[in-house]
Amino acid sequence: MSTRAITEAASTQAAPLSLCSREPHVPADRLVAEMVPPPRFDAVRFDTYIPDPNQPSQIDAVKALSSFAEGLGGSHASGAGRRRWFSKKPAAPAAPRGVYLDGGYGVGKTHLLASLWHATPAEPALKAFGTFVELTNLVGALGFQQTVQTLGGHRLLCIDEFELDDPGDTVLVSSLLSRLVEQGVALAATSNTLPGKLGEGRFAAADFLREIQGLSAHFKPLRIDGEDYRHRGLPEAPAPYSDEIVAKTAYATPGASLDDFPHLLEHLAKVHPSRYGALTDGLSAVCLTDVQPVPDQSTALRLVVLADRLYDREIPVLASGLPFDRLFSEEMLNGGYRKKYFRAISRLTALARDAKGLVEQ
């Protein structure tokens, strides 16, 4: 960013915030309290999902999930609400009490998963919603047994973006879910692509069920076909702006942050991904200068998590430099984590479109 741009903007406005100056601490109780649909999906419902008329599987999924939610009413599957921890362990339900949403990025899986959470007839304290990463972070913060006790009395656990690219985490979460199923907790999940699944836009249900092994009998796969709704019928994302426009907009937008993109990538390495949500607390927009290709895969995966948290919280992103579809190398986009990178591009592009209004004000 040029010195002149900062000087001109600073002469008339208060300085914006900086993500690079933040190192948030997130206590364990906040991790538990935040296991609800994120702000972007707080108001979604089945009737606000707009299925593609050319994809009947989307309509079928809404019907199936609505019925699944209705079936979770009444008493807890273990027999009487929250389990009494010194009582006899209940038998696991015989019928499948889980659904797996099988589809590519941008077909609305998270919208449907959040709608299921909202539609399930139970008080919010008896339902949990989080990404796979957030669930593993919860186990790390509370410990395995305490996590089982914390979630064991729930009616429903929704897991978005179930990641199968780390065998250790897969075993950990599969063990956790097995214990929760024993307590009568219903499950719902979406997932990401395994490494080596080159050229695939979605993760196959058969692979998901194989990886979770003993849990497979508890999941009914629901296939959801379609293209990325974030770009269905919408204009192209705006081209990157100049450093001067990004700086002036940051100074003129209350609650906006302003950071140099390479420096932000360096800072993300110092903050655990479980804290990326807290990193964005109170922001109205994120302004970035000098966007460049991501240098390596570890950095790229951290950026994916940040993009997810920004998207969840509906925080517009205004940027200069390269367009977001040039963030990741061809090798990355053809590798095992390709689905994550395409999701990040899709979400950042949508947020860039949202930021266009900040410049036009």
Record the SSE blueprint:
Layout: H1 3-10, H2 28-33, H3 56-70, E1 98-103, H4 109-119, E2 127-131, H5 132-142, H6 144-151, E3 156-162, H7 167-182, E4 186-191, H8 205-211, E5 219-224, H9 243-252, E6 256-260, H10 261-268, H11 276-279, E7 285-291, H12 297-312, E8 317-321, H13 330-333, H14 338-360
Parallel strand pairs: 1-4, 1-5, 2-3, 3-4, 6-7, 7-8
Describe the 3D structure.
The protein is α/β, with parallel strands linked by helices and 361 residues long. 41% of the residues lie in helices and 13% in strands. The chain has helices spanning 3-10, 28-33, 56-70, 109-119, 132-142, 144-151, 167-182, 205-211, 243-252, 261-268, 276-279, 297-312, 330-333, 338-360, and strands spanning 98-103, 127-131, 156-162, 186-191, 219-224, 256-260, 285-291, 317-321. The strands form 2 sheets. Strands 2-3-4-1-5 form a 5-stranded parallel sheet, sandwiched between helices. Strands 6-7-8 form a 3-stranded parallel sheet. Helix 7 links the parallel strand 3 (156-162) and strand 4 (186-191). The longest helix is centred in the last third of the chain and has 23 residues, at 338-360. The model is unreliable at 79-94 and 193-203 (pLDDT under 50).
